[in-house]
Structures
1.
Amino acid sequence: MSENVFTVKEKRPPRSAMTVSRNAKLGSRCGVSWFSLGAGTDISRESYDSTAVYIGAYGTGTFLVGEKPENVTLKPDEMLIIPPKTLCGTMCSEDFVYTEIITEREVIMNDKVKAGEAIALKDLISYEEGSIANLDVVHNNTMKFVLMAFDEGTGLTPHRAPGNAIVTALEGKAVIGYEGKDYEVETGQSFRFEKNGLHSVTAKGRFKMSLLLVLE
């Protein structure tokens, strides 16, 4: 596998009896970190003054949400949004890896998602015949989290984005062209590109992906 193609588990592998976090270094106003919890570990409940977004990457964990905590299970490629000033902790009985996104400002959420509920990302968006479908899941002026569904034979021509970004394959395969080289990604794999990096996406069959774009 090319070093440009990765999984979150590879970036932050679980360690026995430990919880470990790693800053993804996408930006400063929108904090993106990768967390790993060894089986049987937990993170005490705490709250943020702004919205928190969690995306499962490996294994299964439980988030304890609210004053009288409700247990919410999070699995790979599922998303959980926690409103500001809401107590939230994490525990797991098996190794668990996830992405945490903390913004400085309030976010605008798509009507298809509801805070406090885990939802499978690929189920939020459908394929459209001969087309590329886009769904803006959550955004503010520091970040955008978008889903895209590519019908067979479709793709994005080379272009540049206004911020650092991570693409994650949710279903199927695609070829990402980046600065003159091609990289294949498949379900569960991610690809990072830098602000203004020239890139393209070509679906190999039907393909769904998420895009986390940090705007700074």
2.
Amino acid sequence: MKQHLGALALVVSDYDEAIAWYTRALRFEVIEDTDLGGGKRWVLLAPPGSHETRLLLALAQGNEQASRIGNQTGGRVFLFLHTDDFQRDWHRMRAAGVRFREDPREESYGTVAVFEDLYGNAWDLLEMKK
């Protein structure tokens, strides 16, 4: 048996604003952007070189979902962006205006730093040890 996570939904307030930020700041690629009618779209993004897991941008519907924008997990890191060159991406992301909550640190598993997306969701930028 073979399985993988196809997509993770991220609640956003505006599709185009989110697409612009993720493609500029993180250099994600738009894999699909399909109009579903009624103001809904199926928007899938992926980091450069990624072939399986996608980020699904989900437009918040109603006050309950809107209240979760930027805090889907109570402030915990829930998205882990793996890289093959931490220093390259850390410098490039900072130059693009990405807010890091901390300086890079070495852990037993690799080099890591927590950053925020445009809504304040916490992510790890992570280069695993070989």
3.
Amino acid sequence: MPEYLVQYGTSAFVGRFAATGTDLSRGDSVVVRSQRGLEIGSVLCESRSMLAFDVGGELLRLTAPADDDAGQHAAQLAFEILDAANLTDQAVTFLDCEVTLDRRGAILHALPWGECQLDDHLAGLSDRFHLAVRLHDVSHVKPPIDPPEPKTTCEKPGCGTAEGGCSSCSTGACGTGSSCSKGKVNTAAELTSYFADLREKMEIQVAVRTPLN
């Protein structure tokens, strides 16, 4: 049974969904049965064993016009639930709401800023709209962290630049005495100056050399 990676939900979850006799391509709109209920998702690619994604559920079919209509009705109901949910004096803001395609469940995206008890509030919403209203606390979702910037200097005392390369290494300021193994010449002018200094030192050595005969 083939499996596909499918992206679904407002939070763009990705899961592995098993399909029965369906040949799918990237971008295909499909109906899946996730742990939350029936949802519309988008195919990313066929799953491979080395891709460590959780099993999301079952991929049922390509979406049909009736599924698109059901999705629009579910979205309208989600707006109504969101408006009703924010009529509370609890220390929380509800940012978004999703309703499953079969309209059996709703997921409220909540951002609390203090202590709050929402059990009674969620139960009241469930009774009012005749479906199970659950909570998704977005404050527990950790944002991605950028990798550290690569090092651009030799980090020795007196090494004089934080961008590009080590402009002071050729003078011995960073403690190497000649050149810095990690430093780079930063500009064409520095390169010209470096080789001019090197040529001058070579000419001095030639001038003081003692001939053999």
4.
Amino acid sequence: MLLPDHEFSKPANLQDSLAKLANTSGEIKLLAGGTDVIFNMRGRLFNPDVLLSISELPELQGIEQLADGTVSLGAGCRLTELERHPLVRQYPGLAAGFRAVASRHVRNMATLGGNLNLDTRCWYANQTAEWREAKGRCLKTGLKVCHAIKSSDICVALNASDVAPALLALDASVVLASLKGERTVKLADYYTDDGVEHTVRRPDEIMVRVLFPKNSDRMAYIKETARKGNDFAYATIAASADGQGQQCSRVRIVLGSLTTRPVLLLKTATVIGERGLDDAAIEAAVTEVRDELGALTNLYTPAAYKGRIARVLVRKALLQLREL
């Protein structure tokens, strides 16, 4: 299917890109690797007036460790580059998160910033334009109705980023640039509960890099999907902990692809931080998952299945942590 009519713009540097963002009337869409944006434009989910290519901006490149130990990853770095980089491979759980994205062909084009800003997905919206018109539009496609949860006044489309849970487990932050300057936002605060306005990035901003503090914590990462390769996840989990064996005090557990934003399981992690990683503590932590997740939508898989897979993944990830 042909792309809808649009203007294509490819500034040479970040400053010109930000100026274009700030001074363009009409809808403008950022284009990096294009693995999701182009597909959704062909399906008429996106109909921007302007496509702004940021794929080769030098300011969005680079993988380095800063003087204070902080790891800096350029938002324009390709996932294959990140997965293979020696600095990233010092964090095997993070490398696994990059490796979990789609196929090698997609990772050769897809970028870090693109995956973190991946558009949310809904069974009722991510269909053909003809299918959507027959079913009727929804909150995500222009009308005030949610087909997934009839009583919902906000869109409950799913956050499908495979990379976000791994970076959240590392307590990462993102740096956003505009003509007004840069601001840093904790990744835990970057996503919202609204499937339409699903991040706090403003229309005049571009994500330029991701930062996370140096640490030696062990991390487990699991992606559950129907088939390996191009499928989006039924659920993902990243769990990190200090210490060795059953001993730990600092724990982070993040579930992805289940709700409109990745979920940081604070109560579940507290159980492990206080009791360690013995069998009884792990089961106690798993019990906390149901209440902490709350009500789950019925998108793509039944709500009961989502609750079950969340508990299974927490158990599997914690058992993996114990062995690392």
